[in-house]
């Protein structure tokens, strides 16, 4: 926010990841838990067990859909979901810092603070490249 303190104009870009909690790749998340957080051994195995082999079906009235196995995502509504998702997108923060972009991340919400004198298209291109490699689709709000 130093740009505004210095009297410079700043554009606030609000991003929302589509289906953020549904798109988490379990292998990538487990790798982040291990490499960024240092979780190992039985605790790491517990997280793997927590994330994998989940399935669901939909009930409407007396009708039930077939069972679908979930191959990705974190359990929505669980107390761990926002934290696990935040760990999953940790590299986004590093990437934004590398390009000098000020930001705030909270779960699937991202706020970018772009000084109007900087190359805005560069920052947007960084996000466009990050999204597909993490099965993420950013939507501007």
UniProtKB/TrEMBL annotation:
Occurrences of domain Reverse transcriptase (ranges): 1-141
One Pfam family linked to the record: RVT_1
InterPro entries: DNA/RNA_pol_sf, RT_dom
Source organism superkingdom: Eukaryota
SUPFAM superfamilies assigned to the protein according to its UniProt record, in alphabetical order: DNA/RNA polymerases
PANTHER family xrefs: REVERSE TRANSCRIPTASE DOMAIN-CONTAINING PROTEIN
Protein name (database record): Reverse transcriptase domain-containing protein
Organism this protein belongs to: Cyprinus carpio (Common carp)
